[in-house]
Design brief:
It is built from 15 helices and 8 strands. α4 (120-137) crosses α6 (164-183), α8 (224-239) packs across α12 and α8 (224-239) crosses α13 (330-341). It is elongated. The chain is mainly alpha-helical. It has a domain at 211-385: Intergrase catalytic core (hpI Integrase, Chain A, Orthogonal Bundle). The N and C termini lie far apart (93 Å). The protein has helices spanning 60-83, 90-103, 105-115, 120-137, 147-159, 164-183, 211-219, 224-239, 243-246, 285-292, 297-301, 306-320, 330-341, 346-353, 358-389; strands at residues 4-9, 21-29, 32-42, 47-48, 53-54, 254-256, 261-266, 273-277.
Amino acid sequence: MKVRYRAVWNRKKQLRPDGTGLVQIESYLRRQRMYVSTQIYVTASQWDVAKRRICNHVHAEELNWMIAEQIVKLEAMEIELWKRGEEVSLNRLKECMERKSARQFLPFMASEIERSHTRESTRKNRHTTLALLEEFCGGVTFDELSPHLVSRFEQWMVSRGYHTNTIGKHLSHLRIYIYAAIEQGLMHEEDNPFHRRRIERIPSRHTHLTALEVAKLERAQLPRPLERVRDAFLFCCYTGLRYSDLVRLTAANIQRGAKHTWVSLECHKTGAEVRLPIDLLFEGKALLLINNYSSNLTALFRLPDNSTVDKQLLAIARHAGIRKHFSFHSARHTNATLLLAQGVSVTTVQKLLGHKNVRTTMNYCEVADGTIVKELERILDEKGENGRKR
């Protein structure tokens, strides 16, 4: 007789203080039930009772995938017992599962990510690392976490075309949970694969678009799905908002006064209060975008995940004839650089960007100076060319 599996939420009717309940896998055989924890906690609004799936959660896809993967592993253990001629029972299945899980690193990492007290964006980044590890090796025991495996993981990411700093980010995430495993006695310090290993990083520079490149984006003819991402990127060029702040905007953040229209919000990253007079910034182009999307602001503010958007920007750059490699965060750097190039004071730019320390804003001054010099040199060169043509 086959064991039947299904996911259940908050079976014991015991919510945590934050209102979340545990998702478990129910196994049913011969009128008996066994429950296995997934270490995943969600609220009632994030659980679809009819479909027995997580919904309305920023990591819904990844978490549902993790639940399905655990069910597949239970079924694989059931098949293994049957192949060995052993009786399949819920107790025997649980023993096999617990013994196997105790040796597996990735379920431990998944559990630690979910119960960590970090921002949603941080958890999402670490879930990305977990998904990469799953894709790379499928599973790994604590005993298999060796310097050689870490090197192979690094080379695998290189072969996939990941940037040096992106690889460094994923290795840093892996190192965090190896240290957590050591602290919890699941690994010995001498087995740490990162012992005396330096994670390579390249000093990053603020990538920004010039005024001419922004104009190219504005004029670019794009397919409709890319057009929406382009408009959202330009909105952030005009306002300096981060991706994490843009996707949280609603109509309530747009305040139309007697003289000016403001975008008012609390920065997700720093908690700083920011008020932007968007009718005065960049000739009111951000306000024009809001008016264009007035019937459906959600289309402008609700984007796919940051990684997907960055890939779409590569296609948008090709359509616009821009060879520079840039990400969605480049919009914020573009905003600061262009404002400083226009002569806006550092303290005003600091206030508009929501920087708590003016030294952070000063990082853009050198870029702005360089931009001004290049623009003036270009104008002089063009004048010289025109003079020689005459």
